[in-house]
Amino acid sequence: MVQQIQGLVTSDCTIFAETGDSWFNGIRLKLPAGARFEIEMQWGSIGSSMPATFGYAVGARNRRIIAMIGDGSFQLTAQEVAQMIRRKLPVIIFLINNHGFTIEVEIHDGPYNDIKNWDYAGLIQAFNAEDGRGLGMRVTSGGELAGAIEEAVANHDGPTLIECIIDRDDCSPELISWGRLVARANARPPSPQ
């Protein structure tokens, strides 16, 4: 997926990577001069990338805006996509659907990390209502992703959400390592003050 997203990254591009594996995958992208990379990893604010992407796209209409977000994070602020449709913002959203909060699974697994799956690509049609021009597509292979990216680049009248279906346990080695470190830090007793 990252290899195919790399083909979209130009000097006038801004990438928003959500907290979690989207961040770890996003940092693999090679940015040409002028390209920008926006993250909010310090506080671990899941869901922050959709409102940030929306606000940025309103103010930077001359840039190609790409967002990478997981399904769990998307569920927290999905409604921002409706505003992207209303304002006809040609944002490209790569939604990684692995049926849960994988970042949380790697820190501390439990049933609270399972989420109700949505028809994310179909949600765009609901947000379009009678006059929107957003596109929603679901892909399960590299070939399907390549075709969806072509359609996304051609859509100038609204956002395109590409729902990328992956296995629940498919995540980067960096996320696994980071999750172990955070779990260890969370398990230590508080410091006396």
Which secondary structure elements does this structure contain, and how are they paired or packed?
Elements (H helix, E strand, L loop, with lengths): L1 H5 L6 E5 L3 H6 L9 E4 L9 H11 L4 E7 H7 L2 H7 L5 E6 L4 H6 L12 H9 L6 E5 L2 H13 L5 E6 L7 H15 L6
Structural description of this entry:
This protein is α/β, with parallel strands linked by helices. Helix content is 41%, strand content 17%. The chain has helices at 2-6, 21-26, 49-59, 71-77, 80-86, 102-107, 120-128, 142-154, 173-187; strands spanning 13-17, 36-39, 64-70, 92-97, 135-139, 160-165. Strand 1 (13-17), helix 2 (21-26) and strand 2 (36-39) form a beta-alpha-beta unit. It starts with a helix and ends in a 6-residue tail after the last helix.
Features:
193 residues, 9 helices, six-stranded parallel β-sheet, alpha/beta
Q: Helicity level, as a percent range?
A: 40-55%
Count of beta strands: 6
Q: Tell me the strand order in the biggest sheet.
A: 2-1-3-4-6-5
Overall shape: it is: globular
Radius of gyration: 17 Å
Which range does the strand content fall in?
A: 15-25%
